[in-house]
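Re: that chain you flagged

S.,

Sorry for the slow reply, it's been a week of failed gels. I finally had a moment to sit down with the sequence you sent. For the record, here it is as I used it:
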Amino acid sequence: MKTRLHCRKNGDLCKVDLLIDKTLHDRRKLVIDNIPVNELKEHYPFLEPSQAQLLNEFKRLGNDAEKGVSNFLSQYKDSVNSHLQHRNISPENNLLLAFLMKQSSHMPDVTSSIAIIGIPFLLKESESIMVGNEVREPGESSIYIQCGSISHFCDQKFKLYVDGFDICATEDFVEAFTMYVGSFYIFNFAFPTKLKKTFNFVERVVLKLYNESRKITKSEKDADRCVLQLLDLLNVKKHSSGKFVKTFKGWWQVTGT
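Prediction finished late last night. Pasting the structure tokens below so you have them in one place:
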């Protein structure tokens, strides 16, 4: 009954969703054949109306990025923020993270954004590959988030760029990150080599897509080791003092939060 009522009120949207579902196979063939993003948008303008359609496309591929990011934040947000409190974060190399850490005491809403941007930092990679305040030339960064003025982080739109094209925008950085992650799968782009460990973490922890049985290179093994070490630290930090917790390396006694 609710579905029927929704369709009566939003008939056009229901028709669009139905058509998009039916044309997934054709769309994936175009993506695999490396059709330029602007031409794909002309064929399927579903990308234009809202960020919701972009996230729905990732669901059609069999994964829910929104749920994955939400679960990650509920499990690890406090732990990541706590670890970052004890780190020396230089504005020279981590401008956005350093700014948000300074604002966190009187802007509690940024803790989720800090947890996301903090993962590259904790893995010794650069946030600037993922997010920045400049519009980049095509080919400079295949997919990135453009955030405008850092000093107005909580009062602006975050734009998602794919292959030089402005795909969509949102006022929520967590949602922008969710679209950013999903876009690599939707548009069949390789992960940035300078965020190898970060995307290892994303696939392993956020999306639950990591394939433990596949053959990996030495550099991928190194990334695995760094990510598992970080997970050990984050999992220990999650638990209260005096308890024993299971980590990737065995049983640790937690002596403090």
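What I noticed first: Confidence is low (pLDDT under 50) at residues 1-11, 240-257.

Talk soon,
D.
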